[in-house]
Design brief:
single chain, three-stranded antiparallel beta sheet, 1 helix, mainly beta
Length: about 170
């Protein structure tokens, strides 16, 4: 798993860029870059549109198309058509992670890739209690690194009154 030192997010009207500074034993730091240029995409062939992923000092000329991003509070997984990057974001400022997630969501305006929850995301059970009213009740408590209790999550979906797993970040 690659350790992320910091994340840089840029959006200038032409390019949307998320760059991860990764610790590298040989060269010190290398960059993993997600790049999208929506301004010029209408001029590109359909197969060239979307977010490209490139790793500094990687052999090969072609950037790879982003397929899936899985985001968690301590882990991030980036999958392309041919590669998979597991990133440790546990030392990154939560405000940086929030900015990154917001930019990645804007980069996905045409749903060309999937945004999911990383394996470290806490999962909750939600149960429906009344067939007629379908009332959902959830306990939204999770343990943080410091051992204190933290509440809150985003409820993404319910399944016709049955049990459903809800990710939280």
């Amino acid at each position: 798993m690659e350790k992320v030192q910091f994340i840089s997010c840029e959006e200038d009207g032409t390019d949307q860029i998320v760059s991860f500074a990764l610790t590298d034993d040989e060269i010190g730091v290398k960059s993993l870059v997600l790049l999208r240029t929506p301004k010029y995409e209408p001029m590109l062939d359909e197969t060239q549109r979307g977010v490209s992923v490139s790793l500094e000092h990687q052999t090969g000329d072609d950037d790879e198309a982003l397929v899936i991003v899985r985001i968690g509070s301590k882990r991030l997984t980036i999958e392309t058509e041919v590669s998979k990057y597991h990133l440790d974001v546990s030392r990154v400022d939560p405000a940086e992670l929030s900015k990154m997630r917001a930019l990645i969501e804007r980069m996905n305006f045409d749903y060309r890739f999937t945004i999911g929850e990383a394996e470290d995301a806490t999962m909750f059970q939600v149960a429906s209690t009344n067939d007629r009213k379908r009332t959902a009740v959830a306990s939204l408590m999770a343990q943080s690194d410091e051992g204190r209790r933290v509440a809150g999550c985003t409820i993404d979906k319910f399944k016709n009154g049955g049990l459903s797993r809800i990710p939280a970040i």
